[in-house]
Design brief:
Elements: E1 5-7, E2 10-12, E3 18-23, E4 34-39, E5 46-51, E6 58-60, E7 68-73, E8 78-83, E9 92-98, E10 101-102, E11 106-110
Parallel strand pairs: 2-11
Antiparallel strand pairs: 1-3, 3-8, 4-5, 4-9, 5-6, 7-8, 9-10, 9-11
């Protein structure tokens, strides 16, 4: 069973940046395609970004294209989600997903 661990969330002002990280202690992350999802209060969980096992292919939701970048750090066995130009509508709990497993999430708050 994979235990995905997210980190990097926090409070940021509109226009600010955050970098989220997803790691899986004890497992090699490049065995898995990784997805980032988010859920705002009162809304359904939605896909944000994903990256292939090799890291060669990435996809982003239209709402975050040009602002979010997903990448693999092989040396640290981590997948990052770099978020810039954050908007209030980007706020929510961000979850990492691999195989059939979810992390517990990390909270992103975008507010002035």
């Amino acid at each position: 069973q994979l235990q995905l661990v997210e980190s990097g969330g926090g409070l940021v002002q509109p226009g600010g940046s955050l970098r989220l990280s997803c790691s899986v202690p004890g497992f090699t992350l490049d065995y898995y395609a990784i997805g980032w999802f988010r859920q705002a209060p009162g809304k359904e969980r939605e896909g944000v970004s994903c990256i292939s096992k090799s890291g060669d292919n990435t996809k982003h939701a239209d709402s975050v294209k040009g602002r979010f970048t997903i990448s693999r750090d092989e040396t640290k066995n981590t997948v990052h989600l770099q978020m810039i130009s954050l908007k209030p509508e980007d706020a929510g709990v961000y979850y990492c997903f691999a195989d059939q497993y979810w992390g517990k999430g990390t909270l992103v708050t975008v507010s002035s």
